[in-house]
Amino acid sequence: MSTPLPFDPQQAFNEMATFQRKLAAGMQNLRGLGEQDYANTPREAVYSEDKLTLWHMKGSNTPTAKVPTLIVYALVNTVWMTDLQDDRSLVRNLLAQGEDVYLIDWGYPDGADRWLTLDDYLNGYLDRCVDAICKRHGLNAINLLGICQGGTFSLCYTAMHPEKVKNLVTMVTPVDFRTPDNMLSHWVQSMDVDLFVDTMGNIPAELMNWVYLMLKPLRLNQQKYVSMVDILDNPVELKNFLRMERWIFDSPDQAGEAFRQFIKEFFQQNKLIKGDLQIGRQPVDLGMISQPILNIYATQDHLVPPDASRPLGRHVSSTDYTEFAFKGGHIGIYVSGRAQREVAPAIHQWLRDRT
Amino acid sequence: MSDQMNDFLKDYQAFAQQSWDAWMRSMQQPGAMGSFGTPPMGGANDDLLSRSLASLKAYGSWLQQAAGAGQAATMWQQSMPMQPFLAAFNQPFAQTVAGIDSASAFGFDHQWQSWLQAMQRAGQMGLAGNMGSNLQGSWPTFGITREMQLDQQALTAAINDYLQVSARYQALLQQVNSKGIARLQEKLGQGAEPGKQPESMKALYDLWIDAMEDAYAEMALSDDYREVFGALANAQMRVRKLQQQQTEQMCRELGMPTRSEVDSLGQRVQQLRRDLQARKQRESQADASEVDALQAEIAELKRELAASKATAKVRPITRKTDADDGKASTRAKTAGSASGKRK
Fold it and tell me: Residues annotated as region Disordered (chain B) (predicted)?
């Protein structure tokens, strides 16, 4: 390769020196910042069981929505991505629009939770949360807003308990787990999941984090921190960065049995769309879902590719199916400026049209 | 000019070293600074800090190496040549991947080596200082320690298998490195016309990241990678499983609870939790049914009472009949029954 670079050596050395200077100066700004808070929206615990807490989120005004919406998050990471900070909060935005929002914090499983199955999570925990909300509001059915794996859970739950779900919103939700661009799925196909879970018990959060970092190893483990140097002189941006770092690595372990079932039956065998999935003793048939569905996916999602989400419309019996393509990634759909402007208003409008 | 460059580099290296040292010192103060990066597992505090800062240091080193690599006097008369920059990219990918290993992830070589040493010290294994020969294959087992010998052979074979698969995995990552560099050259070639070339070291670095991630994604979605990734996970799990079995054996001998016993207890506790919830639900449903029945009964009584009053208003006064007595008696009995149920 003989192509010369267009910048001169002096410029290169200047850049090098600038980098080190910023780094040295940034040390002062980092000092004393400590741990950044998140999940600051006022809330009230209305139900709890084992490690789980059901929160009722409180907005400034009384909700105008007649039917409450329950956010069902994934078991990986924490639900607080939806309420990261005041100006980057799906929850706050939904409350501001007049929605009545509940969310499930699954908690941090430990050895005592190693035997929790998907049946325990869906027909146990989730079902009892839905019942608790229905009872509080004197309703027979509520809205579900499922996120990522929580979206898959919401689909399964709706298929098993259709009478308890009025409207269903899915966000960055995998439905077809075997699309060619799904890296996570690709990697687990040759894994002996039984040996994996029998050996590990609960799956440690650090291992999950490692897998996610390995999806884009250089971008997520190096370039991100190199770019951080450019914001070391901006305390606000730096706090935002550290808050996100906290969320990324604040991960619960995965209950072993639930992990085993999810990897085998969803990722490896793709049973959700094949129609032969069973959770507990109940069959899960997406064709049973006739509720209105809003399916939101992110066009640049590297964790749940759009092709994994879009097939949903083909497998449900709902005649009121809407897709919303968000221009961004798996995380940007919650925290980006565009997300604040587009996502919550779209959800609110869609729900309002169906009450 | 060359002397000036050498002086600059010396000064710069000293400055860079001071800078890293200062970062390390600052971050060693507990709670003094915001934390970022992969939370490392285990190891000395300095090691944890070094790993948190590894990405920044890698970039700083690359800047230094790339800029210093082309310090020939001719550089100052013309644009910088490409090759030294590419050479500086030679190792970072594998380093980065190694840097995000944790004790729970696949790069656990140091972990099992520590474990082996601990077991050897505890006298549980006959592998002390002799891993090389033990990795050569199985040997006949006999005598009172026959079962233990078999366990050791199985573990040795599993470790051997893991090392082989790990080498295949590293070879794939190495391919990513070379393919990434080729892609970078391609990208630079495509943008050879003025205005489309990277105009700074950072822009070149970003282009390198793009090229490497493209090459990695292609590799990561290949059949080879899927097979090796799965084999690596499985090989590691076999080693861990055998480690656990040997640890259990030791625990049993020491009278300590074992993982299997704790698992067994956990499984029973989980079943009890399920049974408890099912019972609560049944009781709740039974209560609800009872309340519904009582409410229906009360409503019926109210209707009857209202009907009775209405009849009384329009009916002329007549002598009390036997039938009326019977009805009144039934009402009293029913009300008493409802009241009793409420208690």
Answer: 306-343
Q: What is the pLDDT of residues B5-20, one digit of tens each?
A: 556 556 656 656 666 6
Instruction: Give domain limits for chain B.
Output: 1-88, 95-256, 290-342
How many residue pairs bridge chain A and chain B with CB atoms within 8 Å of each other? 255
Query: Which is it for the CA torsion A339, A178, B99, B48, positive or negative?
Result: positive
What DSSP state is assigned to residue B317? P
Distance in angstroms (rounded) separating the CA atoms of residues A295 and A14 = 49
Looking at the whole model, is its pTM more than 0.90?
no
Token pair listed for B167: 């080498």
Q: Which residues contact B247 (CB under 8 A, 6 or more apart)?
A: B259
- Nearest residue in chain B measured CA to CA from A212: B100
Per the CB < 8 A criterion, the answer to whether A75 and A254 are in contact is yes
The whole-number pLDDT of residue B339 equals: 41
Sign, CA dihedral B324-B329-B334-B335, equals positive
Tens digit of each residue's pLDDT (9 = 90 or more) over A139-190:
999 999 999 999 999 999 999 999 999 999 999 999 999 999 999 999 999 9
**Domains observed in chain A:** 43-184+271-352 (3.40.50.1820)
Token readout for B214 is 């493209």
Say which amino acid occupies B156. Answer: T
- A31 has a pLDDT exceeding 70: yes
Contacts of B198 in chain A (CB under 8 A): 5-7
Catalytic status, residue A156: no
| Contact (CB<8Å) A245/B36 | yes
Q: Which of A36, A229, A245 faces B56 most closely, judged by CB atoms?
A: A229
Q: How high is the mean pLDDT of chain B?
A: 72
Give the CB-side neighbour count of residue B147, counting CA atoms within 13 A. 4
Q: What are phi and psi of A172, to 5 degrees?
A: 35, 55
The CB density around residue B134, as the number of other CB atoms within 10 Å, is: 20
Q: How far is B266 from chain A (nearest CA, A)?
A: 6
Calpha distance B165→B99 (Å, rounded):
19
Say if the Cβ atoms of B216 and A217 lie within 8 Å.
Answer: yes
Closest CA to B125 of B256, B234, B237, B242: B242
CA–CA separation, A126 and A128 (whole Å): 5
Sign of the Cα pseudo-torsion (A304, A307, A308, A313, in order): positive
- Token duo for residue A99: 């929605």
Q: Cα-flanking dihedrals φ and ψ of residue A334, to 5°?
A: -110, -35
Provide the token pair at A57: 């989120």
